[in-house]
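I hope you will forgive my troubling you with a question about protein structure. The record follows directly beneath this note:
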Amino acid sequence: MEAEVNGEKLRPGDHLVTSRFGFTHHGIYVGRWQVIHYARLSDGLKSGPVELISFAEFTRGEAVRVRAENDARYTRAEIVGRSLTRLGESRYSISTNNCEHFVNWCVNGESRSAQVRTAGLSTLFGW
């Protein structure tokens, strides 16, 4: 059975977004009900890695949507390939290297986060 979101088939390279308490979480769908994402902070203050997890683990039962990437710099195969190159990386930073930074880097080659910019975290803390 193929993965679907809101009646649309998921395709490898899709930019997935789901809700968490107070923020949105981003990942790359790689096929076969699997997602690569930045795990953020886990086990207290220890940085979590870029990891491959199931779709169900990624969504945690929350709704998920596919963010349209009409101006993606890379093909879907390249997006998946770029995400795979960072598996195991453990340099999470809420302000400079979070899940949204990671996904935007995979899709467009630019590490950026609208959430950080909107929240003013980079300005507030001088990041």
In short: The two ends are 44 Å apart (CA to CA).
